[in-house]
Amino acid sequence: MSPHAPPPLPRFDRTLLRAVEKVVPAAARAEWLRTWQAELWHTHHRRGARRLSAADLSFGLMCDALWLRAESWRVAFGGTAVLCLATLAALCVFSGVLTLAMAGGWRPLWPHLAGQLQHFIFAAPLVTFVSFGTASHLQASPSFTGRAIYRIRRGLFLAAKTALTLLLSFLLSVNLCMPLHAFLPATSDLLQILFFVIFALMALRWVFADQEQRCQQCLRALSSPARVGRPTYNLLEWNGTEQVCKQGHGLLSVPEMESSWRQSSQWVDLAPTWDQPASV
C-alpha cells in the first residue's frame, strides 16, 4: 500500500456497500457508490467526527438506495398507460375482495351477483354509447404522421380502460347496495342500477377526458396546460391552452371557446428536431 493512500474502509462497510448497491439503478450506481464511500471514509477516519452505529449506516444506505430506485420507477412509469391500467385493475381487485368479505364468501354472494350481472350486461353498452356520443372528439392536424400501430394501441388502451372502469363502477354499486338487499331486495336492485349508471357515467367521462390528454403515440399523460394567446382576442386570433408530450412526440391545442379559428381540440405532431436550434 502506498504511504499516501487512504486507509481502506472497514470490512462491514465494504460488505454493506456491495449488498445495497444492487438496489440502486445501474445508471446512478457508480456515482452513488463513490459518494457513500467518501461519506463513510469521512465518518470513520476524520478526527473528531461523530461515529455512526451500524444500524444508522444500514438505514441511511438503504433509504437512499430505495429512494433512487423509486424515483427511477416514477420516471419510467409515471403517467404511462401501464400504470393507469394497473391502478384500475388493483382497484377492481380491492372492490372484489371487499364484496366477498361483505357477503361472507363466494357461495352466498353468487345468487345475488348473478341477477346483478344481468343488469350490468344490459346497462353497460347503453351507458357506454351515451358517454361516447356526448364526449368531445379529438382532431388530428393534417401533418399528423401517426401510423396504424398507434391507432391500434390507442384503441386497445381505450377499450381496456373502459372495461375496467365499468367493472369498477359495477362492483362499487354492488358494495353500496348489498347491506340493503337482505331487507329490501327490490329496492336494493333498483338502487344498484341507479348507482351503477351514475358511477359509470362519471367514470366514462373521465376515461374520454384522460384519453384526450395523452400523447397519441406513447400514450403518456401530457404536461400541465400552458396558456397561449390573449383571451380578449377571440375573433382575431386563436387562444387557449397547450399540453406537450414529455417525450417530444406532439402537443395538444385546446381552444378556450369554439370559433372560426378552432372548433375542437387538435393534436399536432412534432418533428423529431422541433426543439433543436435552427442552423444559421
Brief digest:
The protein is an alpha+beta fold and 280 residues long.
Description:
This protein has 280 residues and is of the alpha+beta class. The chain has 3 domains: 11-77; 81-212, no CATH class; 226-269, no CATH class. Helix content is 60%, strand content 7%. It is built from 7 helices and 5 strands, in the order αααααβααββββ. The protein has helices spanning 11-20, 26-45, 54-77, 81-103, 106-134, 148-181, 185-212, and strands spanning 139-140, 226-228, 240-244, 250-255, 266-269. It has a 5-stranded mixed β-sheet, with no helix packed on it. Helix 4 packs parallel to helix 6 (148-181). It is flat, with a radius of gyration of 28 Å. The protein starts with 10 loop residues before the first helix and ends in an 11-residue tail after the last strand. The model has no long low-confidence stretch (mean pLDDT 79).
Counted beta strands: 5
Structural class: alpha+beta
Mean pLDDT over the residues:
79
State the end-to-end CA separation. Answer: 57 Å
Order of helices and strands: HHHHHEHHEEEE
**Largest sheet features:** 5 strands, mixed
Overall number of structural domains: 3
Number of helices: 7
Low-confidence stretches: none
| Dominant shape | flat
Rg to the nearest angstrom? 28 Å
Strand content: 5-15%
Arrangement of strands in the largest sheet: 1-5-4-3-2
Helix content: 55-70%
